[in-house]
Amino acid sequence: MEIRVNQTIPIEREWVTEAYLKLRKGGKGTGVDQESWKTFDKKLTSNLHTIWSRLASGSYHPNAVREVEIPKKDGTMRKLGIPTLRDRISQQVVKEYMESRIDRIFHQDSYGYRPLKNAHQALRTVIKNCYRYDWVIDMDISKFFDEIDHEIMLKAVSHVMPEKWVLMYVKRWLEMPVQEKDGNIRSKEGKGTPQGGVISPLLANLYLHFTLDKWFDKNHPEVRFVRYADDVVVHCKSEQQAKYILAQIMTRLGEVKLTIKESKTKIAYCKDYRRKADHEHVTFDFLGFSFKPSKMIMKDKQILLGFLGDISKDSAKKIMEEFRLNKMMKHTELEIQYIAAKLNTKLIGWINYYGLFTKRGLEKCFYHLNTRIRKWIRKKYKLGTKEALNMYQMIRKEKPNLFYHWSKGYC
User: Fold this and answer.
1) Is the dihedral of CA 186, 189, 190, 192 positive or negative?
2) What are the pLDDT digits (tens) for 154-165?
């Protein structure tokens, strides 16, 4: 049933301009209409006015989303829905309006896609909780964005947003059909929000706020959890408690039309110098990090077993794969300054993110990069292995800040 709004919708024209400016810096993927930013910008003023006029009058209706697939680390494909540029701008306008009013209600341990919240805060909380709690439920919600129930989602929106026009637009976005790769149009059939839609992360947070976060606080305040969108870890005092809580979570998710992917869900033991029992799982991954037993060197130089976080094997593998596939290393006509400048943008991002707790995992990645740099030097200057190593060492000594990982003391 269509939600009717019998009044002017209080959307300001400036909001549309601000939404455009924010999104213009981002992704370049086109929707089903194939309109690019370059084409949109040719009639920018007129296009922004049209979007505003339709949003403010209630006559705005979204297009279908274009379905694309990207590979997941387990070999399967993740489906993304790419809205048109105009739909992205419209979603951004309503997202900003909603977020300014409801972000304050979200749980303190919900960190994903929220203002003033980030992944590093979530990771630090996980480390803190692992010190206090011996056991972790590492859970994976199966096809979360595809399975969000529209009826439950709209009930959540209406609970926090009294404006009918907000509910109307959210309903229209939820019901946007999907254009598959072969051009066929598929209806949503009452579930799913496109992973790739601008407003989808906010809706996901709202869905899990009511269906999971508040449920934890009401029914199981004795445990702690950390959530980043649909990535969740739950901290428990004992293995028995962890098994009980996991069973309760599975029941709860079933009540809200979601399921756990059992093959990717496990209970892990935070083994360290204080906790010495044996268990099948003593490591778990979260947000690209692995949390596992690792040696710690204390101030008195004593070595103890701690439970620490470091870049995960999958994340490290992706970085090394990028080094392997980088075509610059095959072009000896380039100058090393050019190669460094091109690589440094990514190196800065990786180090700033994955260097949160330790350098160990990244050291292994950058060892491979340094090996490739030495091979490039050998080929460019037609040197032997020993001579290439000497030149590499000389360059590092003379230009220690040339590559960002050199400047930060890696390898």
Assistant:
1) negative
2) 999 999 999 999
